[in-house]
Design a protein that fits this description.
This is Phosphatidylglycerol--prolipoprotein diacylglyceryl transferase. One of its GO terms (molecular function) is phosphatidylglycerol-prolipoprotein diacylglyceryl transferase activity. Residues 321-336 have a biased composition (Basic and acidic residues). Residues 305-336 are annotated as: Disordered. Its main location: membrane. This protein is mainly α. The protein has one domain (9-332). It is 58% helix and 6% strand. It contains twelve helices and seven strands. The strands form three sheets. Strands 3-5-4 form a three-stranded antiparallel sheet. The chain is globular.
């Protein structure tokens, strides 16, 4: 059956080509920026702060993501040096992007006089929405998909729209749309983070930890479906342990193919597990040791200037109540 596949090139003007992959990543970054700006208003941070953070952070993330990917695929790229910088064709790793973004973000945020964890808390939902949208770049490029499946599995069991099913037909073989699984997981996680950040029990840093826990749990299970995972050769006991953790999914999905010449451990799957354990332990230890006294809702203090949140951070209903009370008190104080 003939299907019309999407063209990865959105616009072509002479030698200049604009790829959908770049456009989609840009939309993800812009969406994340708008969410951060809106939340930043509650803490007295102006929009320019986040715009500059984005301008520094995105290039750092892309460079680190590419270096991370190339490092694990060096066996290929050492013979194809002309492809080292072709990021529009994919080949960037999210964990590498996070490393680059966090290094850049830490330096920038500290130089501006703010706590890194407090600002990272504000930006955590931005990371999820960026990943949620960015995964659709993989959809257009027909990459980051999972193992072979029947079309009926996608249409009748998962009820996936036809335009996605058709794009997952790669050279006559249908594949798991793992980009879609991860995008939907990020969408649910975004709602979870939005709810968490309005809860009084949330301490400083825990919104960021919650982001890593949520994303990494999803990534652990979704990564195992993929056929293009970055791999390394590890001990047999570690391979068995990771497979045992994933085994509850065996009743629905099959593990994606791994090239034995490249390794037997999926790098992203192992990192996901480490991050979950680390973040859960960090929350427990920080609370137990008394290091998590500051709450997410507390005013954000700039340690260079000593200033705190702007008045706009005060809820509107609280302001109106106070103003009404002041007027009543003023009325009763008037002489008769």
């Amino acid at each position: 059956m003939f299907t019309m596949l999407l063209d990865p090139v959105a616009i072509s003007i002479g030698p200049l080509t604009v790829h959908w992959y770049g456009i989609i990543l840009g939309l993800g970054a812009l969406s994340g920026l708008l969410i951060a700006i809106q939340e930043g208003k509650r803490f007295g941070i102006n929009a320019d702060f986040f715009l500059d953070l984005l301008l520094f952070g995105v290039p750092s993330a892309i460079i680190a993501a590419r270096l991370y990917y190339v490092a694990f695929k060096w066996g290929y790229y050492k013979d194809h040096l002309n492809e080292l910088f072709e990021v529009w064709n994919g080949g960037i790793a999210i964990y590498g992007a996070l490393i680059g973004a966090f290094i850049c973000g830490y330096i920038y945020i500290r130089r501006k006089g703010y706590s890194f964890l407090r600002v990272a808390d504000i930006c955590a939902p931005s990371l999820l929405i960026g990943q949620m949208i960015g995964r659709w770049g993989n959809f257009v490029n027909q990459e980051a998909y999972g193992g072979e499946v029947e079309r009926s599995f996608l249409s009748d069991k998962l009820h996936i729209p036809s335009f996605i099913i058709d794009q997952m037909n790669v050279e006559g073989i249908y594949h798991h749309p793992t980009f879609l699984y991860e995008s939907l997981w990020s969408l649910v996680g975004l709602a979870v983070l939005f709810i968490l950040r309005r809860r009084d029990f949330l301490r400083a840093g825990e919104q960021l930890f919650a982001y890593f826990i949520w994303y990494s749990i999803g990534r652990f299970f979704i990564e195992a479906l993929r056929t293009d995972s970055l791999l390394f050769k590890g001990p047999a006991w570690l391979e068995s342990f990771l497979n045992a953790l994933w085994s509850p999914m065996n009743s629905v999905f099959d593990l994606g193919y791994m090239n034995p010449d490249e390794g037997n451990i999926r790098v992203s799957q192992l990192l996901a597990l480490i991050l979950v354990v680390f973040c859960v332990a960090a929350i427990i230890v920080r609370r137990t040791m008394g290091f998590a006294k500051e709450r997410y809702k507390d005013p954000l203090v700039n340690f260079k200037t000593g200033s705190t949140a702007a008045p706009s951070a005060i809820p509107q209903d609280e302001t109106e109540t106070t103003s009404h009370a002041d007027k009543q008190e003023e009325h009763h104080d008037r002489p008769v």
